[in-house]
C-alpha cells in the first residue's frame, strides 16, 4: 500500500476511487488507505467519500461509518459538496446486493445528526429520502423521536411521528411508547390513552415501557392516585411492567403530593409482592417525612430500609440530620452522625457541615473543628461552606484570632470567600445584622474601583436576603453604570426604581437624563 501513499499528490480522484473499489473485500485496508491520503494532504471529494461510505455500509462497520459521516457534517461548508449529494452518487451504482445501501446510509446519517442534536437537518433527510422510495428504519426514527423528547422538543417529536406515519412508517411498540411519553410530558393524557387505543387497533401489544411511562406521567403531573390505579389494574391483568420503577414513581408521586401514608402503603404493598426495591423509593419517603417534620417516622423507615439489606447514602442521611437539627434535636443529630460513621457509611462534606453547624450552635466549636480534621484524614476536601460554618462558630464565641487563622487556611486551600459573606460573618460575630447601608457601602466600593460586575453581584445578594434597596442604593449603582459606560443598564435600573415605587432624587434624574442624551446621540 505504501506505493499508493508515495504518489499521493499525483493521484487523481478517479484513481483513488478505483483503488478503493479494488479494496472492497479488504475494508480495513480501504479505510486505512482513505485516512492515510487525508493525513498526507489529499483533498477527498464527494466521489471518494461515497466510495469509502459504500465499503463501510457493506461491511457494517458502524463506528467507522459514524466517524466519516460526522466529519462530513462538521466540514460540509469546506468540502465543496452537501451530505445529500452522497445519495445521488451512490444511487448511480446500485446493484443487486447494494439495494439496501441507501437505507443503511440514511439510518447512519440520522444517527449521526441526532448525536450532535442537528434536528432540522435530520428531519430534512427523513423527508428527502422518500424520493428514493424509502424512509429510514423504524429504529432510526425511534432514536430521533426519543432524543427530541429528551432535549425538550416534545412538539417536534409529535410532529415527526405524524409526518412519518403519513409517509408510510409502520410504528412498533417502542414507537408507540415514545409517543405515550411525549403526550405525558405535555400532560395530555387523553392523547396518551388514544395511543393505547391505536395500538390495540393495529394489534400491537403495549410493552412494559409504555405502561410504566404512562404511570410516570400521571404521577409527575399530580395525578398519582390515578397512576396507582393504572398500576394495580396492570398487575391484575398481568400486563408486563417494570415493577420496581413503576412502584417507585407512584411512591415518589405520593411523596411529592405530601400524601405520605399513601406512599407508605404502596411501599408496603411492593414488599408484600416481593418486588426488589432499591434506595430511591425509601429515600423519597424518608425525605417526605423529614420535610413535614415527622423525623421519628423517617428514622423508622430508614431502619426498615437498612434491615432489608438496602444501603443508605449520604443524601438520605443529610435529610435526616438536617431534620433533626430543625426540630431542635441537635444532640441526637450528632449521635446519629456518629452512628452512621461507625457503620462505615460514606459521609460527604454536606453531612459533616450539618453536624459541625449543630456543634457550633451548641458552643462546641473545637469539636466541630475536629470534624474538619477528620474530613481531611478521609481525603474529603472541606469546601467554603465547611470553613464558613466554623469561622462563624468562632465569631459567635468571640474567638476572632481563631476565626482569622481558619480564614487564612481557607484562602491557602484555594477557597476565595465572598467579601460580603466575610463581612456578614464579622458582623454576626458581633451580634450585628447587615442592613441596606452596609450593602450600599460595598456596592459603592466596587463601583469606585471599577468592579461593576461585583457591584451587581452584591446588589443581587442584598435583594436575595429580603432587603429592599433604597434611593441611595439605586443612585450608587446607576452612577457606577454610567461611570463604566453601561448606559442602557443604567436606564433599565432607573425604570426598575419606578416599578418598585421608589422616587428618584434630582441627582438621580439628572444622571439618567445625561444617559438618555448620550444613548440618543449614539444610536440616532
List the helices and strands and how they pair.
Layout: H1 2-6, H2 13-22, H3 27-39, H4 46-58, H5 62-79, H6 85-92, H7 101-115, H8 119-128, H9 138-150, H10 154-166, H11 173-186, H12 189-201, H13 208-220, H14 224-236, H15 243-256, H16 260-272, H17 279-291, H18 295-307, H19 314-326, H20 330-342, H21 349-361, H22 365-377, H23 384-396, H24 400-412, H25 419-429, H26 436-448, H27 452-464, H28 471-484, H29 487-499, H30 506-523
Helix pairs in contact: 2-4, 3-4, 4-5, 4-6, 5-7, 7-8, 7-9, 9-10, 9-11, 10-11, 11-12, 11-13, 13-14, 13-15, 14-15, 15-16, 15-17, 16-17, 17-18, 17-19, 19-20, 19-21, 20-21, 21-22, 21-23, 22-23, 23-24, 23-25, 26-27, 26-28, 27-28, 28-29, 28-30, 29-30
Offer a quick outline of the entry:
With 524 residues, the protein is mainly α. The protein is built from 30 helices and no strands.
Gross geometry: extended
Number of strands: 0
How much of the sequence lies in strands comes to under 5%
Report on the biggest sheet: none
**Which structural class should the secondary elements be placed in?**
mainly alpha
Task: Indicate the percent of residues in helices.
Answer: over 70%
Mean pLDDT: 82
Order of helices and strands: HHHHHHHHHHHHHHHHHHHHHHHHHHHHHH
Assigned CATH class of the domain at 1-131: Mainly Alpha
Q: Which blocks of ≥5 consecutive residues have pLDDT under 50?
A: 4-10
Return the CATH architecture of the domain at 1-131. Alpha Horseshoe
Q: Radius of gyration over alpha carbons?
A: 33 Å
Q: Span from first to last CA?
A: 68 Å
Q: Quote the CATH topology of the domain at 1-131.
A: Serine Threonine Protein Phosphatase 5, Tetratricopeptide repeat
Helical run tally: 30
Organism: Gossypium raimondii
Protein name: Pentacotripeptide-repeat region of PRORP domain-containing protein
PPR repeats: 172-206, 207-241, 278-312, 348-382, 383-417, 435-469, 470-504
Family: Belongs to the PPR family. P subfamily.
Amino acid at each position: 500500500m505504501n506505493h499508493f501513499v508515495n504518489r499521493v499528490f499525483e493521484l487523481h480522484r478517479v484513481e483513488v476511487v478505483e483503488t478503493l473499489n479494488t479494496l472492497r473485500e479488504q475494508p480495513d485496508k480501504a479505510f486505512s488507505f482513505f485516512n492515510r491520503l487525508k493525513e498526507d494532504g489529499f483533498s477527498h471529494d464527494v466521489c471518494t467519500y461515497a466510495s469509502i461510505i459504500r465499503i463501510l455500509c457493506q461491511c457494517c462497520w458502524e463506528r467507522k461509518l459514524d466517524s466519516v459521516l460526522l466529519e462530513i457534517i462538521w466540514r460540509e461548508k469546506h468540502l465543496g459538496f452537501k451530505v445529500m449529494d452522497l445519495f445521488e452518487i451512490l444511487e448511480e451504482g446500485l446493484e443487486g446486493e447494494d439495494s439496501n445501501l441507501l437505507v443503511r446510509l440514511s439510518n447512519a446519517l440520522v444517527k449521526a445528526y441526532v448525536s450532535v442534536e442537528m434536528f432540522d437537518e435530520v428531519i430534512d433527510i427523513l423527508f428527502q429520502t422518500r424520493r428514493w422510495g424509502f424512509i429510514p428504519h423504524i429504529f432510526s426514527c425511534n432514536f430521533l423521536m426519543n432524543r427530541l423528547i429528551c432535549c425538550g422538543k416534545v412538539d417536534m417529536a409529535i410532529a415527526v411521528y405524524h409526518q412519518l406515519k403519513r409517509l408510510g412508517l409502520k410504528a412498533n411498540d417502542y414507537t408507540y411508547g415514545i409517543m405515550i411519553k411525549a403526550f405525558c410530558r405535555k400532560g395530555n393524557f387523553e392523547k396518551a390513552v388514544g395511543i393505547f387505543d391505536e395500538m390495540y387497533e393495529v394489534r400491537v401489544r403495549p410493552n412494559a415501557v409504555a405502561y410504566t411511562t404512562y404511570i410516570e406521567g400521571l404521577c409527575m403531573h399530580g395525578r398519582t392516585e390515578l397512576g396507582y390505579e393504572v398500576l394495580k389494574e396492570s398487575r391484575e391483568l398481568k400486563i408486563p411492567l417494570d415493577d420496581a420503577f413503576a412502584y417507585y414513581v407512584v411512591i415518589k408521586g405520593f411523596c411529592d403530593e405530601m400524601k405520605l401514608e399513601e406512599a407508605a402503603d404502596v411501599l408496603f404493598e411492593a414488599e408484600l409482592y416481593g418486588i426488589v426495591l432499591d434506595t430511591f423509593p425509601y429515600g423519597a419517603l424518608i425525605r417526605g417525612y423529614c420535610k413535614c417534620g415527622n423525623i421519628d417516622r423517617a428514622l423508622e423507615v430508614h431502619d426498615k430500609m437498612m434491615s432489608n439489606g438496602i444501603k443508605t447514602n449520604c443524601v438520605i442521611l443529610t435529610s435526616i440530620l438536617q431534620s433533626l437539627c430543625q426540630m431542635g434535636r441537635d444532640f441526637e443529630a450528632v449521635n446519629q452522625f456518629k452512628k452512621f460513621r461507625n457503620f462505615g457509611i460514606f459521609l460527604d462534606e454536606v453531612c459533616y457541615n450539618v453536624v459541625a453547624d449543630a456543634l457550633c450552635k451548641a458552643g462546641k466549636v473545637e469539636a466541630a473543628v475536629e470534624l474538619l480534621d477528620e474530613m481531611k484524614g478521609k481525603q474529603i476536601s472541606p469546601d467554603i461552606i465547611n470553613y464558613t460554618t466554623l469561622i462563624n462558630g468562632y465569631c459567635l464565641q468571640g474567638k476572632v484570632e481563631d476565626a482569622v487563622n481558619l480564614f487564612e487556611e481557607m484562602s491557602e486551600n484555594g477557597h476565595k470567600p465572598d467579601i460580603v459573606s466575610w463581612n456578614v460573618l464579622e458582623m454576626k460575630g458581633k451580634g450585628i445584622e447587615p442592613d441596606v447601608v452596609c450593602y450600599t457601602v460595598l456596592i459603592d466600593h466596587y463601583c469606585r474601583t471599577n468592579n461593576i460586575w461585583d457591584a451587581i453581584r452584591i446588589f443581587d445578594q442584598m435583594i436575595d436576603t429580603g432587603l429592599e434597596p433604597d434611593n441611595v442604593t439605586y443612585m450608587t449603582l446607576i452612577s457606577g453604570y454610567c461611570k463604566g459606560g453601561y448606559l442602557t443598564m443604567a436606564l433599565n435600573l432607573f425604570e426598575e426604581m419606578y416599578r418598585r415605587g421608589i422616587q428618584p432624587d434630582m441627582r438621580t434624574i439628572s444622571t439618567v437624563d445625561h444617559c438618555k442624551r448620550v444613548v440618543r446621540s449614539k444610536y440616532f
